[in-house]
């Protein structure tokens, strides 16, 4: 073999390896530990929050939600790390996503509705639509979201390709996607210069924890490989071993009053009930309930109602106040006196319908955003919070019948053209022609 042939063979062997690495990625820790900043996350933290929690909750004083992606309950339940986490907490056996695909589920958990959304496109939601952030700030509860591999705090792009840290030398990888970052999609959050600082990177997470300023309401989105989206449940299990397991025994994250909800956005299989695996963990779980299961019907709206019950917050007057579909996690309901509602079996939705709901974020069944139900009473007992610019007269009953905008060659006014890897914060425009 000539030297040239040898190198040709070597090159072929190497590219074959790279190709197989791309098809089956192997978990690699992005840093030496979850509380150490890393260059694998593009930019280092510039600041820390200055949070001093003041308002005590009835059942917990901090809630951390961690969302993984697209796995059926049975698959997760038979994976070792998840089995061992269930033994440390309360396994919620009847926790449901609200629709398919991903993005509407994230939206729903923040704003109490998915407004008909049936895809993963680039949207923004006008600033008169309230979110959990309004409810939290109304009572001085501190909050932040931490998005793995988001390149900077004010990032507004559709996705971000960063250095491939799993297969060095391979093409940059879209580890961060906007569709899993619900707070940025709500203008009430991302277009507010103070609030946008709370849409934070994973290096900020390390900085905030180390500096003792981790807020009281936290939403964590691991990147597209660690959350199992592009990989497998075993890959996500390795990520949790690296990231969550050490944090569970770190009092700066999990003190005696912390509640952690680990769950999934939706099931992978669309033709089954959208029942995702979910566990409640953390120091706030009463000792006698650790290792138990709770079969109450919950949905992504339950994380909203649970937070409202815990801190006595106002409500959004949307999915968070629908009896039976927004049950409060039982141990919190019993500490706050909230009465959950058990729906008769024939009234329990399967939550797996896609593209049938009408709303402002669907082109096929478009209706404008309605005002919330102002008469609703949420689990926190307060009134419905109204943001500036909300037209309370736009009740669902007063809105026009749904129209199919695609028949008129239009998309919804709230769908924007994707911005890919760049993406400074911009003020969105309601005119579809200027997005
Ligand atoms: C980035 O991740 C890779 C894969 O785990 C690791 O080998 C490397 O040390 C990390 N780089 C930094 C700067 O932490
Ligand atoms: C820190 O500041 C620099 C310079 O302004 C910026 O490029 C970088 O993205 C910032 N980091 C974060 C995490 O926002
Ligand atoms: C939803 O799940 C049920 C089973 O629980 C199934 O019968 C039904 O076909 C599914 N619907 C869709 C649209 O896949
Ligand atoms: C919310 O604001 C948008 C943009 O200004 C407006 O088009 C819409 O009618 C408002 N909706 C409600 C319910 O107030
Ligand atoms: C912004 C800030 O104060 N960051 C500090 C957080 O804690 C680390 C470690 O003690 C410091 O190096 C940072 O300066």
TrEMBL record:
Pfam families reported for this sequence: Phosphoesterase
Keywords in alphabetical order: Hydrolase, Signal
Signal peptide residues on this chain, from the entry's feature table: 1-21
GO annotation terms (biological process): phospholipid catabolic process
Protein name as it appears in the record: Phosphoesterase family-domain-containing protein
Record organism: Mycena albidolilacea
The keyword Chloroplast is assigned to this record: no
The keyword Hydrolase belongs to this UniProt entry's keyword annotation: yes
Superkingdom of source: Eukaryota
The organism's taxonomic lineage, starting at the top: Eukaryota, Fungi, Dikarya, Basidiomycota, Agaricomycotina
PANTHER family: ACID PHOSPHATASE PHOA (AFU_ORTHOLOGUE AFUA_1G03570), NON-SPECIFIC PHOSPHOLIPASE C4-RELATED
InterPro entries named in the record: Alkaline_phosphatase_core_sf, Phosphoesterase
GO molecular function: hydrolase activity, acting on ester bonds
């Amino acid at each position: 073999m000539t030297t040239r042939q040898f190198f040709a063979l070597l090159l072929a062997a190497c590219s074959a390896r790279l190709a197989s690495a791309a098809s089956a990625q192997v978990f690699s820790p992005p840093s030496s530990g979850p509380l150490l900043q890393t260059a694998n996350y593009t930019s280092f933290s510039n600041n820390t929050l200055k949070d001093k929690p003041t308002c005590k909750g009835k059942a917990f004083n901090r809630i951390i939600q961690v969302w993984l992606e697209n796995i059926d309950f049975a698959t997760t339940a038979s994976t070792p790390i998840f089995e061992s986490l269930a033994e440390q907490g309360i396994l919620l056996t009847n926790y449901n996503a609200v629709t398919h695909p991903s993005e509407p589920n994230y939206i729903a958990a923040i704003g109490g509705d998915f407004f008909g959304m049936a895809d993963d496109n680039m949207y923004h939601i006008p600033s008169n639509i309230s979110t959990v952030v309004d409810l939290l700030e109304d009572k001085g509860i501190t909050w932040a979201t931490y998005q793995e591999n988001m390149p900077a705090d004010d990032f507004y792009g559709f996705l971000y390709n960063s250095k491939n840290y799993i297969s060095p030398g391979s093409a940059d990888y879209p580890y961060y996607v906007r569709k899993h970052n619900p707070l940025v999609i709500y203008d009430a959050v991302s277009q507010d210069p103070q609030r946008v600082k709370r849409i934070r990177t994973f290096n900020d997470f390390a900085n905030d924890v180390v500096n003792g300023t981790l807020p009281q309401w936290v939403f964590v989105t691991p990147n597209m490989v660690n959350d199992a989206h592009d990989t497998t449940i075993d890959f996500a299990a390795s990520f949790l071993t690296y990231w969550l397991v050490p944090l569970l025994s770190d009092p700066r994250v999990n003190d005696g009053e912390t509640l952690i909800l680990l769950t999934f956005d939706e099931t992978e299989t669309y033709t089954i009930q959208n029942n995702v695996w979910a566990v409640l963990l953390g120091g706030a779980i009463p000792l006698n309930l650790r290792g138990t299961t709770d079969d109450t019907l919950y949905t992504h709206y339950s994380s909203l109602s649970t937070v409202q019950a815990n801190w006595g917050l106002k409500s959004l007057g949307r999915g968070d106040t629908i009896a039976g579909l927004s049950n409060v996690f039982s141990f919190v309901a019993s500490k706050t006196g909230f009465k959950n509602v058990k729906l008769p079996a024939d009234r329990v939705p399967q939550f797996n319908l896609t593209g049938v709901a009408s709303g402002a974020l669907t082109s096929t069944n478009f209706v404008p955003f309605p005002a919330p139900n102002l008469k609703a009473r949420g689990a926190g007992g307060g009134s419905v919070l109204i943001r500036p610019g909300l037209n309370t007269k736009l009740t669902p009953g007063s809105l026009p019948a749904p129209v199919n905008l695609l028949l008129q060659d239009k998309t919804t006014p709230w769908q924007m053209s994707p911005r890919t890897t760049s993406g400074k914060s911009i003020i969105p425009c309601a005119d579809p022609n200027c997005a």
